[in-house]
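Sequence and fold:
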Amino acid sequence: ASPMPGLPAISTNIAFATLGDGTDAGAVAVNSNTLGKMTNSGKTYYIVPNPTNPTQVLSNISFNGTAHSWAVAGANGIPSFNGSVNSPSNFNLTAPQQNASVSKAGDFVIRWSGGTSARVHVQITSLSNSSIMKYKSELNDNGSYTFPASEISGFSGDCLVHVVKYNYTTVNSGGKKYYLISEIVKNVTVKIN
């Protein structure tokens, strides 16, 4: 993924879970990787890597259409459940290019290639004012999306462009619905003038 201006590109796998309204649901794992548990403002979150173990890495996690299998032990009103979601496959963000200058007088075209068919989310966010943002979700994976010039007229300066390919499934357990999501995020920074 391409970073903020001046920072090097990074690639990392992250696993994250929150259940209910931040309820401690016991142990949570994905593909046999137990996620670190942390509590903040009375809410429990599960994440790898996490602040108490920042060097923990995920093993047996691939982004090539294979299953990401989740196991939740259950506690405090959250039932025990298991489920899996197939990951999207890796892809390339082909346009715009990193550090490109884009005119807001014209349409803003985002293109990607490769990977298996998945749902797509595209987003543009101003780096100087995060409240200036446009996004579209649940797009067909057809390799491009165009924001009309009228939708980007409020942007100026450095912006972050995200393309997220994702799959999700639901697990029904204990009368509740839980969403399992697998996603790949690609970013570039551009300058909109």
